[in-house]
Amino acid sequence: VTPGELPPTIAWAGDRIRLIDQRRLPDELVVVEVTTVAALCECIRSLAVRGAPALGAAGAMGVALASVRGASLTEAAEALIGTRPTAVNLAAGVRRALAAADPVAEAVGLAEEDLAVNRSIGHHGVTVVGHGARVLTHCNAGALACVGYGTALGVVRAAHDAGRSPFVWVDETRPVLQGSRLTAWELDRAGIPFRVIVDGAAGALMAAGEVDLVLVGADRVTRSGDVVNKVGTYGLAVLARHHGIPFHVAVPFSTIDPSTGTGADVPIEERDEAEVLAWAGRRVAPAGARARNPAFDVTPAELVTSYLTDRGILEPGSLRLAVDDPVRGGS
Amino acid sequence: VTPGELPPTIAWAGDRIRLIDQRRLPDELVVVEVTTVAALCECIRSLAVRGAPALGAAGAMGVALASVRGASLTEAAEALIGTRPTAVNLAAGVRRALAAADPVAEAVGLAEEDLAVNRSIGHHGVTVVGHGARVLTHCNAGALACVGYGTALGVVRAAHDAGRSPFVWVDETRPVLQGSRLTAWELDRAGIPFRVIVDGAAGALMAAGEVDLVLVGADRVTRSGDVVNKVGTYGLAVLARHHGIPFHVAVPFSTIDPSTGTGADVPIEERDEAEVLAWAGRRVAPAGARARNPAFDVTPAELVTSYLTDRGILEPGSLRLAVDDPVRGGS
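Above: the input entities. Below: the structure tokens describing the complete assembly.
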């Protein structure tokens, strides 16, 4: 691993999985080996591995793990899918490996595809990033959310490599701080200039004319084009519309789920209240306090400027046509 | 102090100031004695005492402190005003004590007035809180932001006392977490039901129909009715408008500053980057990361439903007339 380059976020290693333990970032870069489905489920639940595309690979590799261990594939599949109810890629990855003659080969293939898909998203998406553009992003839709490269941050990476000198406003993204911990770490390693802000500061920066576009990933896009992503994304979309700032969603085409009609059909994961009531392991709220902790929110299609995908740039109107395209087939 | 009741946030004690050290809440309720202007300035800068009305009392008491210590009043005034450039009440409190024949009596009088003003805001404002209303608030505009009772939370307190059974969504309010630390603590002591949320979750709750009104305080209201308040307030106002939810600002009439034309004329304090990159001494962002940390933002008058003041409820259109009213005189 050369400076700036990362090991894969998640990779198959003969008979086990190797993954970056994202709970320990940015303090230390630790690659852990996972040898059981139960251990993988715990890694997924605790966000040691997270991000829609990475969870797709994790799901497939979890089934591969069960197959090399001689465990029940259907029990493994059920356990894996139950860990994060909102992530469509996780379930899709599980099902794909489950349906394959060779789950290991399928999982390895899926991971390779993911890298290629992300580079393709970057290739297409770079056109929305003007020279010197100030991009605002939320959560982490980077290499750490995928097998590598990244979706929203992949587009930023492509713009950087093309000499477009992008700058990134990084929402810290409470409660788990994927922005200040992970996105900041990735951008720092890649030499892309950025500043971290609290999530509440986005509006002030937009009003001051300091944001040229918003660029986020998604955990699921519905058939109607509604975007399910980290809580806080919807507020950014409303603010972007209020200020006439483009709001782009960078996703693998496979994240668009033709079986989900609209955002109202998506189960929203409620996570542990402790994530809100504590900060970096230190309780901050009084003992009697309780919290609500929805992990995701829904941004309606009408607030989306475009979807940056590996099949090109789609607008809300053209998204449904593309999803209904029979050529999609087994993609 | 009976259960649920608080000592005054700040009080004059013969020849010194006693104030609740809000840096130590909610872990412990500690009242500290402040005997020098330099120590008071440090308390203000580090947010041991904060909130627009409380800073008004702090400013006046700081001048009183200089007078009983035989120190230079003008030097004390300059030092105090320089600590928080956005807070209009701080400077107003300083100037009022400075102009008085007896700074101590003036400071004590200002603190007594503050309590009466807050109760009056509650008396008028309670009418906007329907039975069982779910109020969303940001930062802490409670007793801890004032000498006692509170502005936005004073209205909630009045609604609670009137049997209207309000419920409060508490924005945690990064970076300093005045919501989860202070507002949650106050509501818990007052027996008013609440849940803490991350700042980014407000949009999802509004979209789900779980917010009936937004109720915030302000550090300054301009002649045009623009509201300068804790960063994140503006985003809430845009979201409230998008969802057709009322957005109310509870303020002492004296927080309306006729000498400031619009929000563009207000200096916005930029605070230490470390507030964003770390919490309670624990760094979360990588070593190379930097941050932007504007403490406030500006909500334009057109997004405000009404101002709940000690002179009654004003709408943006009537605010300017009220400010220009010559009866205002020495208030």
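Note for the figure: Chain B touches chain A through 56 residues (CB under 8 Å).
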